[in-house]
Amino acid sequence: MPDPTDVPNPVRDLLDALAVPRPMRRGSLSERYMRCNKPGCPCAERPEARHGPYFSLTRVVGHRTRSRLVSAEQAATVRAQVEAGRQFRKHVEAYWQACEQWANAQLDAPAAASQEAAKKGGSRRPSTPRSSPRSKRS
Ligand SMILES: [Zn+2]
Hints:
Elements: H1 9-18, E1 28-34, E2 51-61, E3 64-70, H2 72-108, H3 115-120
Antiparallel strand pairs: 1-2, 2-3
Helix pairs in contact: 1-2
């Protein structure tokens, strides 16, 4: 029944969401208050007198953590970029799941599946692709 050219709606919708280009990044924004070590500055004793906030963007690349300082003016933008990246990742995951349901449906289709393939793939029925594709993580 499912035809590879007949794209299920969830797959199409998620692809549309993924196809919107926008500035985004991985990593996270951290906010810090620092002591300055100047003699007599109250920041040495009182945490609420510390200086800041200082923002930095942190990201792990391979085994190394990369940091980059971000100005207070840039912080809101960076936060939005990080959030956009998080959304993108969620969409990618949901897209995988929608495509895998689609792939299962293809295996389970009576016309397409040989007996062997049907056994191997378990007895999963072609479920309605609408069943929340982003609820599970693998
Ligand atoms: Zn100080």
